[in-house]
Amino acid sequence: MHYQIRRLAPSDAAALHRLRTCPGVVRNTLQQPFQSLASVQQLLDNFPPHIHALVACTPDGELVGCGGLHLAIPPRRRHTALLFLMVRDDWQGKGVGGALMRALLDYADNWLDLKRIELDAVHDNHGAIALYERYGFEHEGVARGFNLREGVYEDAVLMARLRFRPGEHAASTRPAEPATRPAPRQDRPRQLFHLRHSELDDAAGVAALMAHDSVQANTLQLPYPDENAWRQRLSDCKYSLVAEAADGSIVGNAAIWQPGDNPRLAHIAELGIIVHPAQHGQGVGSALLQALLGQVSDYLPYRRLQLKVFSDNAPAIALYEKYGFVREATLRGDGLRHGAYHDCLLMARAVK
Description:
GO terms for molecular function: acyltransferase activity, transferring groups other than amino-acyl groups. By secondary structure, the chain is α+β, with helices and mostly antiparallel strands. The protein is 27% helix and 33% strand. The N and C termini lie far apart (49 Å).
């Protein structure tokens, strides 16, 4: 059958509501059961500009599938999009998914010039995984306990399709064996520091910390950090710690945050740590990580703690492995750094 592919519109609310509440769609995506029509209409009336959504309709106009590209917002990941796809239960196996995939990939390749399209699929959604493989998506790893479904935390298969031009994708330098932590530095006395909760007045200190070339290179932040932007970020982040030296300077920062507001991912928190280059190997990162892990374990409801790290950042990888983080996936070409797209590792630790 030939399907009409067009952009999702506010007038599609009733049909999209029917699609999103199909039992099979709820089971195999991150949709919630018992969604209200009003909530779907509100979504469409205020649709985010960084999400490009298409629908598949039968010749008589009936909406039977929806798919889209969720563009990454961080500037160093703007070459990336997260793909999503839903097909109504009674239209499975009739070519709807394939029609949407062809349209979405054409849109991504020829109009958005995306380099990396990624997705996650519930581990037992074999039909969808086979469809993605047929259109060039490759397995990158498995996120353990990622998706809450019917009371069980299910694994998600992580897949991606790459479209880099020659020379754009830097070869992975991920070590085959567990990374080795650097020995404590002996060239200077260990500097005393203490940990405390971050305050808005720490924005200048954190921005100065982020201004170091090596800190920028090993995060997804931009050069020339803005103090006001960091003030807003510290205001938004509920769980942020700083390591303060005896002279009052900020020598480290660590934070955890939720990756989104989807209730089925509410058990997940993401983690980030930065340390002043002069304090590498002095225990700052370990102290920050221990403190955050204790806070999550004892006082917060998260069950899964995850992070990304560039695959060539061996000292950071070793630190995370020391505290129980496991490499789950190699995300190829995930982050832009010095003009090339570099691999990142997804690492995670079960907290409870």
